[in-house]
Design goal:
CATH architecture: Up-down Bundle
Structural class: mainly alpha
CATH class: Mainly Alpha
Shape: globular
Oligomer: single chain
Helix content: over 70%
Radius of gyration: 18 Å
Strand content: under 5%
Number of strands: 0
CATH topology: Four Helix Bundle (Hemerythrin (Met), subunit A)
Length: about 180
Amino acid sequence: MDDYSRKISKWYETFSTVILILAFIALFITGFLIQNYEKSMSLYYIGWIIWVLALILAFSPNIILKKYGEVTPGKRYVHTTKLVDQGIYSIIRHPQYGGSLFVAFSLILIQQTLVSIILGIICIITSYLSMVFEEERVIPKFGEKYKDYMKRVPRVNLLTGFIRKMKRNKRVFRIQK
């Protein structure tokens, strides 16, 4: 990638991140300001269940990357020096961004307003774009190991990730027998 392309990519990434943050702030604030008194309680409760899952996904990298990523002492968990494919990272590649996707989706279900749908969709799109931008940075850092990891582990699809992990575990179990 040439310098111009890198600058454009960085600009898109920064713009996307700003939009993501603003949309999330608006989504949270409108949840308090705009009430839907005719909402489906089933969707409301499903939203809260997804919210809990989202929080687990969003905060798990703090522990897992610090533990397995060989982070330099004194540095934050994002400064890993080793590719991590354990824990939640053996199921999906981007648990933190996945968490933000699920937070947005859960708030759509909890709030059930047109404003939450619009802001939630903006959050989902910009979170997805952030994942793509993140991979552009990580591929050069970890090279072929990361490309192999990308083939084995889905970006954010939990169901596919669990299925693939179970298949990998079956193969390992058969080999050890």
